[in-house]
Structures are given as structure tokens and as C-alpha cells.
Amino acid sequence: MSEHSEKPCIICVAITGSVPRKEDNPAVPVTVAEQIESTHAAFEAGAAIAHCHVRDDDQTPTSDPARFAALKEGLEKHCPGMIVQLSTGGRSGAGQERGGMLPLSPDMASLSVGSNNFPTRVYENPPDLVDWLASEMRTYNVKPEIEAFDLSHIHQAAAMNADGRIPGNLYVQFVMGVKNAMPVDRDVFDYYIKTVQRLLPNAEWCAAGIGRGQLIVNEWSIAAGGHTRTGLEDNVRWDQDTLAPSNAALVQRAVELCAKYERPVASVHQAREILGLRRAA
């Protein structure tokens, strides 16, 4: 029996991102209807959190609150109790428009507290915007998921927690494998865990790997007692040569890793309790 056996593992599915749907990755859901259908299958497979972006009619990522509202409504209807986490990421807009959906009061929203390099640009998260997004999340009772692309982001989240800008017990996600940012590195991963445990002893943590790093980071996080994220936003390939067939298939792969390390998969009710979220309607 492993050290972390019997601790429920929360599986987050990132259903779609900014990757355009082309002929070589038709499984990526784009329209709101496709996203609802894909998320429902992932929910049935064991995902407790849906990390959501939306697209416009040209498949371009957008922060349109109306599209987020339609997606949120559909997920709440077809995936009862599932935690809806909306993205405030910079791929879908600029400045405060990135938080235009927060008045919808989703269960959670992503929050990056610092800037870093992306493959072809800088992912800008200036302090005034971070403070504004955190304030809106407090106003609308939205729990942030801290997306840590760098060690400094964990330190900044701890500082914002200490001064009340991000209250309560935090949920910190390590994002590894973005080109030009933090690579998939086991020593760094282990130090991230130690840093969270030292600075934020009451926090829960999760990890996501990008591209071919997805399965590696899934296994590291499950084995180490954390939670994990999978899905077609992060990786459209099952391996180097084969396309992932669906979000549900990627979730099932994480479920199998939970079984390997004797970790029960958290139900939506357990996930809400672990994260201190309100009970589902």
C-alpha cells in the first residue's frame, strides 16, 4: 500500500483551449454543444472539474460572457455537481475582458499571478490585472485555481493569500512543459511540492503536463498524493504517433493511474469538500 493510498484524487479535464480544430485533430470540441457532449463523457469517465475556454464562430478563443454562460448552463444540466472552472487566461482576450465572465459566479476560475514566456509570445499578467481578477473572484465567490508556470508564482500566491487578496485554502496547479517556460523536470516538480507544503501547508495541489509530458506529469502527481489535469487542451496526442480519441479517453488513462497507485478517484461531492466549495444545487 502506497503512502497516499485511499486519498481521493481530483481529476480535472481541460476540454479545449486555443488549439484550432483541424483535420488532424478532429476530437477537439469547439462549439458549445460539442464541449458539453465531450465534457459529459469525461464526467462519466471520472472527471470532477471541467476547465473551460470558449470559441467564437471562427474557432478563435474568446472571453464572450454569453458563450461562457451557455456552456456553464449546459454543463450544470448534463454533468450534475461537476465543478465548472472558467479560464481567465490571456489567449482569449486582453486586460479586464479576460474576467468578463466572472459575474456568472462559476465554482472556480483560473488565475495566473505572474507572467512567463509562451512558445511565441509573453503571457502577460501584470500586477494590477492580477489584483483586479482576484478582487472580482472574491466579489462573485469564485475560488481561484492558481496556475503556477514558475516557482515565483507559488511565492506570489502565498503573499496574496497572507494579505487576504486570495483568501482561504489555496488550490495550486503546477503547469509544466510549455515551450520556453518550465519544462517537465522531476527535481523541479518535487521542489514545487516542498514549496507549497512550506509556504501554504493547508493548500491542495494539482499538476498538468503539456504535450508528451501530460502522461508523465499525471503519473508523478497521482503517485505523489496530488491531484491531476488531463484533456485535449493540453495534449491532442495519445502518444507520438497516435491522436487521442477523446477527452474521456484521456480521463480514463488518469483513472487507470489512480488504480495503479491505489488512489480512489474523487467524486464531484468529494472534490467539492476537498476544495471547500459550496455544495452543488
Sum this structure up briefly.
This protein has 281 residues and is α/β, with parallel strands linked by helices. It has 8 helices and 12 strands. The strands form 3 sheets. It has an 8-stranded parallel barrel with strand order 1-2-5-6-9-10-11-12, surrounded by 8 helices. A two-stranded antiparallel ribbon has the order 3-4.
Structural descriptors:
alpha/beta; eight-stranded parallel β-barrel; two-stranded antiparallel sheet; 281 residues
How would you explain this protein's 3D organization?
The protein is of the alpha/beta class. The protein has a single domain (11-275), classed as TIM Barrel (Alpha-Beta Barrel). Helix content is 35%, strand content 16%. The protein has helices at residues 32-45, 65-78, 127-139, 151-162, 186-199, 214-223, 247-260, 268-275; strands spanning 11-14, 49-52, 54-55, 61-62, 83-86, 108-111, 116-117, 122-123, 143-148, 171-176, 204-209, 227-230. β10, α5 and β11 form a beta-alpha-beta unit. α1 (32-45) packs parallel to α7 (247-260) and α4 packs parallel to α5 (186-199). The longest helix is centred in the N-terminal third of the chain and has 14 residues, at 32-45. The protein is globular. It starts with 10 loop residues before the first strand and ends in a 6-residue tail after the last helix.
